[in-house]
Amino acid sequence: MNASELFVKALENEGVEYIFGIPGEENLTFLEALRTSSIKLILTRHEQGAGFMAATYGRLTGRVGVCISTLGPGATNFATAAAYAQLGGMPMMMITGQKPIKKSKQGRFQIIDIVRMMRPMTKFAKQVVNGNNIPSMVREAFKIATAERPGAVLIELPEDIACEEVECNIYPVRNLKYPKAIKEVISDAVCRIEKAKRPLLLIGAGANRTRIGSALKDFVNETGIPFFSTQMGKGVIDENHKLCLGTAALSKDDFIHCAIDRADLIINVGHDVIEKPPFFMENKADATKVIHVNFLPSEVDDTYFPQLDVVGDIATNIDQITTAISKQEHWDFEYFLRVAEDIRTRLSKYFGDDRFPILPQRAVRIIRKTLDDEDIVTLDNGVYKIWFARNYRCATPNTLLLDNALATMGAGLPSGMAAKMVNPNKKVVAVCGDGGFMMNSQEMETAVRLGLNLTVIILNDNAFGMIKWKQSGMGYETFGLDLGNPDFVKYAESYGANGYRPTSCENFKEILEKCVNSDGVHLIDLAVDYSLNHTILNGLLSKKQCIL
User: Which of 175, 314, 376, 515, CA to CA, is 20 to 30 A from 492?
Assistant: First the structure.
């Protein structure tokens, strides 16, 4: 067999289902090997969309999502998706082509050192220089991509190496198991929690893994310690739980920071400094202490410097703590529970407001009421992400897919497509701003071609709304951020999708209900009113407004 056929066999050995992307002439030998494979090629309209789809596949399955591009401009288009996967902890492999490395008559045409370019944004980046090394290289790359912290890897396959005759030598896949923390560390953690008066549990993105949610739920139920989450930790424990305080949608001065500021110990499970901070630590003697529970040690940062690291398999270590800990009579959670109730009351203030264009809180409420607990919402990046983080309560993990690490625009639609492919029996809604949607709107054709049942909601304010909010908050005049959009209904219909433009909140509710229960790709152009953002978010509360 040739090296391309061996590469495909190595990917089949890893259980790869899909390869997303746009092949070029340098990939043709690989493409021919893929033609008779069990792996399905998902041809996209842009490499960035392919990368976002592969990363989201990895996020939802825990297995490596794979994408492919040609050399040069095709490979450089993977840069944002690589950073998205790397910062977001999503296992993803990029396969890129390259001109022949042994003999070429095309000079430096289209040649960029992609391996060197990608190294700062990946966990592993190598060029294949000997076809017989492909099986070990693929196995190593998959192992690295899925090891904590998961991330992006790249293998570059030059055109001449792809044709080489090779021997088949596939390596078996072996799952990696993580050690547990030693007894002394568990005892130290238990002692600190038991001595605290008002301990509080924080659930971060790293807790969104198999088994961890069950272990954390047992911990909460056994101890009665209240919890909150980061934006990417939503749903690890059902957010309708009576001990859930909600989500830290902001880094400070949100309703939930009343409770955070009152805690004397935070048990921080699965969070690291890559995700936007849910709170800021203070370097003074009487400041709130933090226990870091994660697969890897904490990285010291000005905002985060825990007093204790509990390192190793999170689920096992939480189970150890739950077994060893005893409820303490001096624990005082009464204030936390009042905060939880107050947060629910404050957040529901605009749920019934029927003004139109629609308030983002009202839109979130309608979407939440329309979808079942197991259904999935994917978000692009914009100011509406804050409203979803605060107001969209998740009952199960990975049912609200947002990016609070790279926080890139353009990922909402491709992520929704990948989510639907992974979960064909669940309703999937992709929510985008008009700015973010247009960055990868061409993937509407891909969604239609694949026959996906997908609903896309564009929250349309004809501007880059998040930046306008920040611009105004800094006292600057509005400048440079207003857009002119196409007719999104006609735009959707031109791809063979269905387009809608609601005229009221009730009309939006009716249209959304129809879309999520109908086959095909649906786009809803929803006019949104962000005029209350400053009132609600700027100086959202002061210490005087916290519950006493």
Answer: 376
DSSP state of 80: H
How large is the angle between the packed helices 314-324 and 183-195, nearest 10 degrees? Answer: 60
| Beta partners for residue 308, in sequence order | 291
Q: Are 427 and 371 in contact (CB under 8 A)?
A: yes
Q: Give the list of residues 6+ apart from residue 292 with CB closer than 8 angstroms, or none.
A: 268, 298, 306, 308, 309, 310
Per-residue DSSP letter, 504: S
Give the whole-angstrom CA distance, residue 375 versus residue 420: 10
Tell me whether residue 490 is exposed, middle or buried, using C-beta atoms within 10 angstroms of its C-beta: 0 to 12, 13 to 18, 19 or more: exposed
Q: Tell me which DSSP letter residue 314 carries.
A: H
Distance, CA of 115 to CA of 106 (rounded, Å): 20
SS3 161: helix
Reported as a single tens digit per residue, the pLDDT across 211-258 is 899 999 999 999 999 999 999 999 999 999 999 999 998 888 888 999
Q: Please, what is the Cα angle at 394 between 523 and 55, to 5 degrees?
A: 60
Phi, psi (deg, nearest 5) at residue 161: -65, -35
Angle at 48 between CA 43 and CA 52, to 5 degrees: 85
DSSP state, 71? S
Is this structure's pTM higher than 0.90?
Answer: yes
Taking every pair of C-alpha atoms in the chain, what is the biggest distance, in angstroms? 79
**For residue 528, what are the β-bridge partners?**
358
Question: Could you identify the residue written with the tokens 């993990």?
Answer: 397
- Rounded CA gap, 245 and 144, in Å? 35
Q: Tell me how far apart the alpha carbons of residues 264 and 194 are, in angstroms, rounded to a whole number.
A: 12
d(CA 515, CA 500): 10
Express each pLDDT in 441-486 by its tens digit: 999 999 999 999 999 999 999 888 888 878 887 889 889 988 899 9
Round to whole Å and give the CA distance between 146 and 125. 15
Q: Does an H or E element contain 20, and which?
A: strand 18-22
Which residue type occupies 356?
Answer: F
In the chain, the N- to C-terminal Cα span, in Å, equals 73
Q: Does domain 351-536 have CATH number 3.40.50.720?
A: no
Of the candidates 278, 95, 260, 106, which has an alpha carbon nearest to the alpha carbon of residue 204?
278
Find out whether 90 and 60 touch, Cβ atoms under 8 Å: no
Number of Cβ within a 10 Å radius of residue 214? 14
CATH architecture, range 183-342: 3-Layer(aba) Sandwich (3.40)
Helix, coil or strand: residue 291: strand
CATH number (3.40.50.970, 3.40.1180.10, 3.30.450.40, 3.40.50.300) of 3-162 reads 3.40.50.970
Q: Which residues are 500's β-sheet partners? A: 524
Buried b / exposed e along 451-474 (16+ C-beta atoms within 10 A): ebbbbbbbbbbebbbbebbebeee
